[in-house]
């Protein structure tokens, strides 16, 4: 089969592609070819047992999405997005990439026609929800984005469902939890501390915690995110019905519970590297974010969360630190 | 003040404009000027005590929305839409008018900038909801459109909320119930019988009822719809908060209750003009439509439904039949 990944240079995209390169197959089907796309050329995975083509372009520009789908990939994984902060700072750019880009892609698939009907996975976000909401948001709660990014993701979900209903493709939208522990350098994202307070201490470095211990949030490991994509790519979509967008399962923990899990895995000395430095601006933003979900539909359809926050930390140590905590 | 009505040639648009022409003012403010737009030139209301300009154009084409808002209207009422059946039959046209047209309009307002921030009323629809749903859909139920029209309206709602949040205009979206009794000739809409079984018998003509008496639906008179628009145009929008789209209140009745109301108002002879002719296709479509709502937010914000289905029939007789049932 032929797989197209749009946004393949991002963290989740890279891990998904590496996993496929290791497996050589998707479910029971051997992979013959992958096309990896991003605004900068993605790296081809080392040692992939199939042909890999890398493409760098702005897929929101006229004609670019058509080129990407012209080879009729069997599976299209759409991970590309202008992230929350940038979509808020640059209104036009956010709408151009996140709304127009997504719609151009969907239309390019539709225009091929001729019986072409690929599986399309759209990665949405819990940013489609904005406060106030219930303590555990259920699968029928309405979309109340409080950012342009969340608005654009919610619109992508609606388009995905309608284009699927019309038979243009076989779409599934998955709302990812906050990915934790995100590997790599600290970034400026307001949510960055959720990963930072685990990642930096495990690397022997100090991390700043800007919010109270009582803050609760919704997490999934990069490994779980790859699992969501693999399941979305291979599952029987007939079971989903017309409501094609699903909140992925996650682990809901408070910051205090994150810290206690870290203590259990890595000890007091590592935990002591977390420095509390309250930041009212970040605390204010985080107060409007979802804390917990009741994702019964995704669970019933076979999507699997991490077992616990401790398991999330252990997955990080295995996947990013070679299984060892640096002394 | 200057009012722009887009979609002014439609039934609700005409009644709204006629009401403003009679009043000469909107709330406390005298109307200086109205611009009436539609794809065909709308009729100017007779005897309006203000200047009326009529414009015919396709507002989804580049530059057209800019022309409409260049005069900086204080209030913009956006009623234009490709209706459900046509948006389903002509995919490109539905998206071009209902999504692109709406977005072009919103962007044209945004691009004026310079402190311009008009009140914008967007008429949405209960078609943003699709089965299965609760018996009475509450204000937090998620949007589950099962038509391209409903999808386009849901996207318009999301854009309205985001553009309002960003301060580009002061938007309010109102989800209209099915308008009943719709005046004029019978049309091909699958929902047409809800009006037809009242309108035709009152005019001494036979009407066909294609669904069982037990079918329940959500209704508002044209008079109530005009009331919603007037309230949305004059209310204090600060009370709404960031969730700018509201399900309007209506009257939930079964077809049997519609018929008994007609009997009470007009007698057995009129009711005898309703002929039952089951149509499984129409019955199947109607089975997926909302039956009842619990529109607490709109009620708390001062929107008023008709008192009863009997009141809806009496409003039709007063407004369309000169207060008399033809013998």
TrEMBL record, chains A, B:
Domain of life where this protein originates: Bacteria
Domain NAD-dependent epimerase/dehydratase: 3-208
SUPFAM superfamilies for the chain: NAD(P)-binding Rossmann-fold domains
InterPro entries, A to Z: DenD, Epimerase_deHydtase, NAD(P)-bd_dom_sf
Keywords: Carbohydrate metabolism, NADP
Transferase among keywords: no
UniProt-listed CDD domains: Gne_like_SDR_e
PANTHER family per UniProt: ADP-L-GLYCERO-D-MANNO-HEPTOSE-6-EPIMERASE, NUCLEOSIDE-DIPHOSPHATE-SUGAR EPIMERASE
Name this polypeptide is given: SDR family oxidoreductase
Annotated source species: Chelatococcus albus
